[in-house]
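agent: user wants the structure for 3-phenylpropionate/trans-cinnamate dioxygenase ferredoxin subunit from Aeromicrobium choanae. delegating to structure tool.
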Amino acid sequence: MTFKEVAKLADVPEGAALGIEFEGLDLALVRDGDTVYAIQDWCSHAEIPLSDGDVEGCEIECFLHGSRFDLRTGKALGLPATEPVPVYQTKIEGETVWVDLPNQGETA
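agent: tool returned. relaying tokens verbatim.
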């Protein structure tokens, strides 16, 4: 895995999700103060973009069926989803958001 520059901090909304595509991965970035979470932007239940859903605290909810996921672990917290989604380590340097993404051929 390698940290990659994926967004400017100012572009990541507080308490909401920003959906981005970076090097073939769909990510949802969520800002909570000085922390940015990066989670796969697809619900494990119905392949719906999580970035279209609501954020509350450290959870993101799929807008279609209401499945909820922990932004820190990717764990499914509410049915109908039962499978987790990948999460990625982040860091902020200056005004830039970096995400530790798999190298080509690796899986998260």
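agent: one observation worth passing along. The two ends are 8 Å apart (CA to CA).
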